[in-house]
Amino acid sequence: MSQHPALTFRSAAAVLALALATVSPAAADAAPPNQPGDLVQKALDELVGGGEFAGALAAVREPGGGGRDYTAGVSDLATRAKVPVNGQARIASATKTFTAAVVLQLAGEGKVELDVPVETYLPRLVRGKGNDGRLITVRQLLQHTSGLPEHGRAIAGTFFETRHRYFEPRDLVDLALTRKPQFGPGNGWSYSNTGYVLLGLLVQKVTGRPIGVQITDRIIRPLGLDDTYWPHAGEQRIRGAHPRAYKSRTGRPGGEPVDVSEMDPSRGWAAGQLVSTPRDVNRFLGALLGGRLLKPAMLEQMKQTVPVPGAPRGWGYGLGLTKIALSCGGLAWGHPGDVGGYSTRDGITEDGRSATVVATEKALTAEADKHLDSALDTALCAGGRPGTR
């Protein structure tokens, strides 16, 4: 779940890939970190050197096999411990791509139709303040064109008070439905975590199994994403090695950085609950864009984008995927995420180079967000292709 919906689409890049589907995990994971003079390392050093982030880590995966890990800054402001290579983090809204992939798998199996009302699968659930599930389609939930209000706005100002609270998915929907729609379905674009909570409920209704189980059985286990998991209900600690997460007490630079590594991720649920690592996210994007998870027709629909108001030229949003133009030319596909002190930017290029950058916040300002985007752009463009920096 992104704590900064307005910032989300100034974020990160990524693109379709075919070659990554055949990369050997062992080859990709064996590369040494922190090579002197490396442009990616320089970008991470600049991230933490600016004082906006305590630590950063990244992984880059090459289209023909192999890759490299990176770290910068510190994992713990108190002990000054090093950032763990390929550490785990809450990937927040990058979860949306996993959720969307499951919905599109079900569509490919004939169990879900994208252009029917949400009411078909969740009768009488979406009602209130002018919000009406009879008028909103599954596709509109996937592409943020439903007009649904954002439940995150109702709790955004209470993060420190509610970060240990468990939210039922229906609680999140009910919070959103106390507000009027932002526009009529299909008549605009606005980022809605609530829409993805509804998609999680839809998956559960159709399959009779929890969304976390579906993501695990359909994506995490088949791809061997051993460091990725869906936290159990009430689980607040991150299981593996990870950098500590920090959040400014005031929400502004210079505010007291509070350790918020332990929190209940249920506020994001199907919109942002997963824990993963940079390597695993890269492997997931390679498999997804390489055609290993979806039927060709479904993958093609996933990449059909709509304009994002206020975004730079070349940006767009598909069905759980963000499209962006890279500084070195070409396009990228991926999905950014920000929650509870962790910021993730991921992407995969047209020729199959994938990169994921994770930073631990002190305060996620618009300028800090721009620096994260730039770090990902560097990681995706520093591959020796024509026009790279």
Topology:
Blueprint: H1 25-29, H2 39-49, E1 53-61, E2 67-73, E3 89-90, H3 95-108, E4 127-128, E5 131-132, H4 138-143, H5 151-155, H6 159-162, H7 169-176, H8 193-207, H9 211-223, E6 246-248, E7 257-259, E8 275-276, H10 278-289, H11 296-302, E9 316-317, E10 322-325, E11 331-334, E12 337-339, E13 342-349, E14 354-361, H12 366-381
Antiparallel strand pairs: 1-2, 1-14, 3-8, 4-5, 6-7, 9-10, 10-11, 11-13, 12-13, 13-14
The CATH architecture of the domain at 8-94 and 210-381: 3-Layer(aba) Sandwich
Instruction: Name the average pLDDT.
Output: 88
Name the CATH superfamily classification of the domain at 8-94 and 210-381: DD-peptidase/beta-lactamase superfamily
Q: What Rg is obtained from the alpha carbons, in whole angstroms?
A: 19 Å
Specify the CATH class of the domain at 8-94 and 210-381. Answer: Alpha Beta
Shape: globular
Biggest sheet features:
8 strands, antiparallel
State the distance separating the first and last CA atoms.
Answer: 32 Å
> What name does CATH use for the topology of the domain at 8-94 and 210-381?
Beta-lactamase
Count of helix runs:
12
Strand content is 15-25%
Task: Considering the chains and any ligands shown, give keywords for the structure.
389 residues, alpha+beta, Beta-lactamase, eight-stranded antiparallel β-sheet, two-stranded antiparallel sheet, disordered N terminus, disordered C terminus
